[in-house]
Amino acid sequence: MPTVKLMVGGIDKQIYLPYQLAQDLGFYKKFGVKVELSTEQNGGVGAEEAMASGQVDMAGAWYIHTIDFQSKGKDVIGVVQLSGAPGEREMCGTNSGVHSAADFKGKTLGVTDLGSGTDELTQFLASQHGISRKQYKTLAVGAGSTAIAAIQRNTAQCVMTTQPTVGALESKHLAYSALDLATTQGATKVLGGAWPAASVLARADWVNSHKDAVQKVVDALVATMHWINTHSAADIANKMPPQYVSNSTISKAQYVAGLTTDKGQFLPDGIMPAGGPKTIYAMEKVLGVDVGKVKLADTFTNEFAMKANKLEGFKTTTTPAGAAG
Description:
By secondary structure, the chain is α/β, with parallel strands linked by helices.
């Protein structure tokens, strides 16, 4: 049984729940692979950076990083796509006066970390309204209690964050959702198309030399996505580690309510959706990333997910992206 080290960009975040859920359902073992899960720490090395430097084999992180890496000459690829939306909400303090990205000017905006996907998303949202990076500040606030504290202390007027932090902020009446990027429908409205987010990233050379192990990981995760699609938020919460769904920032009822609202971000079959890579590519170009040498066909593959669905007898519903994204 091959062993694969997979680091997740915040394993207790709802947007990244499939990696842990696959473990708790016994799917990695079922499909013949031992997956050693770890999570990035606030202020530590990001999951995607740990993967790119060889500290771990795979990263549970956003697809956008493949384009970032490819633009810098690092051959990183997404091997299975878990969501078609960022799963994020722009949560703004009750007295912030922010109701859309047009109101970002002069504000301090919280992101998980500087240079992270939430940082890039924030920049893109501002640029859509002609607001430059000099006209607002970004602050690394992490997630959970640190993000909540930033709103409480008004060190940031808004934070881009996910469930369960969203539910905690709402239940404490500290903030409201100014922008919905949590569902595919919401992301399409704000960003102009499906915005593939949570993925499994790996170095292309590692993928090519470990195809059997990669296939087994993807088999397990595709089975997990199908399970998520056919079960309720309460069913999912019941399978997750108790400390993820009920802790000092959120109750289990709030966790389930948030997941019920935002479950639409998850793709049922692990397939990269048509148009998704193009949307990300266009955003990166607007942000000034040198994408001239990036070939979208090199940033993702549906090969493993297609085989997994066939193996498991699942009918696919996502229209797959072609070589041009």
